[in-house]
């Protein structure tokens, strides 16, 4: 990537720094407000905020009871976003998400169709257990995520801005589920693994959530503030070494492109160019979240797993040998240094 490409960022570095400082104060307040309600999930909170600052959608994977739903509700309040939740079930229809046309009759007896909006018309939509719905319903939501509008009865209806989907999936319960196809998984900027809290966090949670007073989230931002920050993220400069690290990492995760033959043979299919775009946006968002004005290679390494793990698959032989996607990504990261 040649130097002139970066000239768009250097128009007014002082203004960028000033804007970043103002954003940082808001982000710090948001993190603190979320942390008062959700305990022991710092990495998850960071990755969800990276997803939203980068303007993307997130896939939260974890067993039930780890406060995934509560996290999304809390985010909606703290960030001042209109939040809706849909529980996905096998009998959920596309119209249950998108909305439908209903026949209205006015006082004179004239009939006309009126569009009743579905829950997708929110700024933050929680799609709970997305893999429980039929492929047809999944694809209706995923199309909305990609195109930011829905078409019902030939009419286009634009979704609100910002518009983010945070979908959840239970990794254990595979009975009666429809796994998301690869092309649809690619729509998610990050896959965020939600793990059990550590002992100290769980201890604090016991007292905070079973007492008479439970912490309530406070609003610290608005949807408009978030949109401004998303624009700012896209203007943060990315150094040449970081761009090279992103390209090296994503391209090495594709079969047949890596010098290490055993590692190459372990990968059945790898991430497309959307993974590089996701990483390019996510490292900028992480730098801003961390109070830095430019991303580093550390950001690339920290976000390699959430960006790549749902965009690649291992060969049958590798899986039979007990190899995991995480281990392969770990080896690819080690090659970056």
UniProtKB/TrEMBL annotation:
Chain ranges of the ATPase AAA-3 domain: 57-190
Keywords on record: ATP-binding, Hydrolase, Nucleotide-binding
Coiled coil: none
EC number: 3.6.3.-
Domain of life per record: Bacteria
GO molecular function annotations of the record: ATP binding; ATP hydrolysis activity
Pfam families on file: AAA_3, AAA_lid_2
Domain ChlI/MoxR AAA lid: 266-328
Record flagged with keyword ATP-binding: yes
Top-level enzyme category: hydrolase
Similarity section: Belongs to the MoxR family.
Protein's name in the database: MoxR-like ATPase
Lineage of the organism: Bacteria, Pseudomonadati, Pseudomonadota, Alphaproteobacteria, Hyphomicrobiales
């Amino acid at each position: 990537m040649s130097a002139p490409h970066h000239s768009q960022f250097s128009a007014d570095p002082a203004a960028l720094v000033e804007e970043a400082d103002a954003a940082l104060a808001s982000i710090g307040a948001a993190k603190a407000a979320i942390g008062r309600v959700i305990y022991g999930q710092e990495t998850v909170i960071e990755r969800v905020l990276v997803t939203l600052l980068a303007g993307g959608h997130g896939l939260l994977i974890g067993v039930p009871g780890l406060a995934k739903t509560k996290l999304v509700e809390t985010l909606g309040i703290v960030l001042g976003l209109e939040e809706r939740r849909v529980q996905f079930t096998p009998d959920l229809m596309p119209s249950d998400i998108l909305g439908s046309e209903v026949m209205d009759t006015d006082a004179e007896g004239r009939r006309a169709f009126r569009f009743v909006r579905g829950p997708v018309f929110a700024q933050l939509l929680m799609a709970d257990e997305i893999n429980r719905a039929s492929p047809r319903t999944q694809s209706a939501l995923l199309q909305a995520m990609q195109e930011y509008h829905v078409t019902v009865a030939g009419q286009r209806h634009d979704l609100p801005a910002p518009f983010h989907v945070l979908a959840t999936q239970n990794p254990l319960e595979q009975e009666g589920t429809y796994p998301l196809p690869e092309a649809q998984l690619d729509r998610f900027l990050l896959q965020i693994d939600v793990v059990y809290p550590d002992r100290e966090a769980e201890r604090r949670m016991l007292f905070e959530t079973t007492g008479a007073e439970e912490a309530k989230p406070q609003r610290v931002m608005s949807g408009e503030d978030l949109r401004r920050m998303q624009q700012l993220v896209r203007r943060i400069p990315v150094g040449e070494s970081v761009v090279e690290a992103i390209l090296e990492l994503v391209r090495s995760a594709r079969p047949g492109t890596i010098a290490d033959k055993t590692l190459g043979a372990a990968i059945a299919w790898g991430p497309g160019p959307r993974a590089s775009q996701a990483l390019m946006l996510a490292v900028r968002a992480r730098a801003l979240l961390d109070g830095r004005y430019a991303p580093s290679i550390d950001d690339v390494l920290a976000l390699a797993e959430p960006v790549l793990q749902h965009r690649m698959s291992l060969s049958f032989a590798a899986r039979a040998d007990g190899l995991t996607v995480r281990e392969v990504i770990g080896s690819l990261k080690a090659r970056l240094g």
